[in-house]
Amino acid sequence: xxxxxxxxxxxxxxxxxxxxxxxxxxxxxxxxxxxxxxxxxxxxxxxxxxxxxxxxxxxxxxxxxxxxxxxxxxxxxxxxxxxxxxxxxxxxxxxxxxxxxxxxxxxxxxxxxxxxxxxxxxxxxxxxxxxxxxxxxxxxxxxxxxxxxxxxxxxxxxxxxxxxxxxxxxxxxxxxxxxxxxxxxxxxxxxxxxxxxxxxxxxxxxxxxxxxxxxxxxxxxxxxxxxxxxxxxxxxxxxxxxxxxxxxxxxxxxxxxxxxxxxxxxxxxxxxxxxxxxxxxxxxxx
Length: 286
Description:
Elements: H1 11-17, H2 22-27, H3 29-35, H4 37-47, E1 54-58, H5 64-73, E2 78-83, H6 86-99, E3 104-108, E4 121-127, H7 136-145, E5 147-158, H8 165-174, H9 197-206, E6 210-217, E7 220-224, H10 229-236, H11 241-248, H12 253-265, E8 268-269, E9 272-276, E10 279-285
Parallel strand pairs: 1-2, 1-4, 2-3, 4-5
Antiparallel strand pairs: 5-10, 6-10, 7-9, 8-9
């Protein structure tokens, strides 16, 4: 496990992703990847990794994007995956070994402080892995220096909570049952930290990137098949902001799950429970 050092700017995130929060991401890897399949496709299309390229995957997690990138760069390319979560990387290593991918390696490390050789990568890539930096301008400036002069950055992040119904619906159902909590401060690291396009543009331009673009997409999130409200509710108690509270207050889990299931039933249809996500596909050049 990566131990956060005194003064480490992302110490709280390192501790969080090596604690109980990581377990559901490992146990439900296939389900999570299915949820994010469309976002992954959109990002890969925008990033356009090419045969022989060297790619940095920031926040590579359990390894799905590593496998996708490896398929595109081929055996002549290289993919380096960085993540702060040892439990997730353990699964990623297993999947890489099972696929026999010698062009992929992973390291337990914080991308904002990793010792990159300057100009090492053609592409810096991230699927929902860059919204957690405590000092994002400094972090992205560090990543920019790792790119070749003709390289590129591409990542996907969430827009606002209000637009992400797949998170908002269960969270609003649970809220009356949960203890009061202060809303996140503007710019606080987290899932929705990059909702404001002006802030994202300012961070990247402040870090020295140019040609910054943000393209909105609204991929559907297929949470369950028809009649799956209870299943969707159980999943929602394991991950995200509500799950963080329930780990401290397990006595609230059953009533919260029931409230979420009732909310999900209102969205159950012929295709099951399908709610929209709201994302940015972000691209820039060093």
